[in-house]
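Annotated sample (chain length 451).
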Amino acid sequence: MADTLNQNTNIVASNKKRSSGSDECDHHDDSFFVSKKQSKSLVWEDPAAALANARHEFGEHGGVNMSIEASATFTVMEPETMRRMFAGELGPDRDFFIYSRHFNPTVLNLGRLMAALEGTEAAYCTASGMSAISSVMLQLCSSGGHVVASQTLYGGTHALLTHFLPRACNITTSFVDVRDLEIVKEAIVEGRTNVLYFESVSNPTLTVANIPELSRIAHEKGVTVVVDNTFAPMVLSPVKLGADVVVHSISKYISGAADIIAGAVCGPASLVNSMMDLHQGSLMLLGPTMNPKVAFELAERLPHLGLRMKEHCKRALEYASRMTKLGLKVIYPGLEDHPDHALIKSMANKDYGYGGILCVDMETEERANRLMNVLQNFTQFGFMAVSLGYYETLMSCSGSSTSSELNNEEKELAGISPGLVRMSIGYNGSLEQKWSQLDKALSKMQEKMPF
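Output written by the structure step:
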């Protein structure tokens, strides 16, 4: 059996290299980040196929699932080995580990899977989505740095760029409408701007970024493109479309169970290595470490992410279409009347749909709250809760919840109506069963107010 395993470069059995003898090469290698297939040539694949082709880690005793390396620190067999590890001569590429804030084998494997998912050279998984975003910005920008960012962002990211980074790090941000490519071009100052940052599908307004054109504009001026792809895993592949770095809140669709907080940075191996540098690395020194037990659980969920995303997206499109016919003001990129429908259709990976989130604009917060109350407490369609990607539908009034960090003027610029209800459409129960619950709630609302 061992001979068979060794012939397959995508299947990796446990082979601890505990000796640092001179018979081994001493150079550092990036290949520990990715499967051997990927490290040779980054050829784009369907996300589900890429995940299936990533190296498979078996358990220590031959289990089909990898073992959990729950150690904070790691032993060496020879005193000289530790010196060489800290000098960078020996590393995870040869199965030498120092401390789990640096690299942990279980977390490292999840990183390989995330790199496969996004088609990047490398990925590193963190304790939260915000820690992934913060670490990337701090690695790519120094004091006096400049960011150009979309004016429509998740509230926490907006607060980071608007308040924290200017105060703590002297890093400033110019917020622009990324749909206006000329304005983006004018905002980027060659030699000063470090990062162009936006969400592939914006939270909560569901505008779609023209990733190829935005990447082209940024690269012409030597600027790194960072894309938050939390709303659209599998649906969009930003690096395939020209972006440099992808960040995720794994807590959402990738987890799928609303029980884990986690994040990921996917990008060039050189960037991830720099973020893990012992002296200058933002991930290494700020320490947003992922627990290996969490990494194990997430690695078990990634294989069925594609199936889950297809069902989320299928139901979101169906409900958006039916609600539109009833006269509601629905925002969903999969609808032909959405201003970015043609754009997302041109960029989306085939067969994954247009995203699992739709918005209903009820115009006022009072009407939005009444709708959510009926949907949760009278017809059991979903839950009033923030976050997304859960198997049940989650609903929130964005202006007073996940975008509450923006002031009224910023919300208006971002296009966030006071009555905007964001719905992360779940897949629990049958489609018709859940539609019946939604339709019943809408009928109850219509008794008191016409749409």
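Annotation: Residues 304-448 form a domain with the Aspartate Aminotransferase, domain 1 fold (CATH 3.90.1150.10).
Annotation: The CA atoms of residues 110 and 299 lie 6 Å apart.
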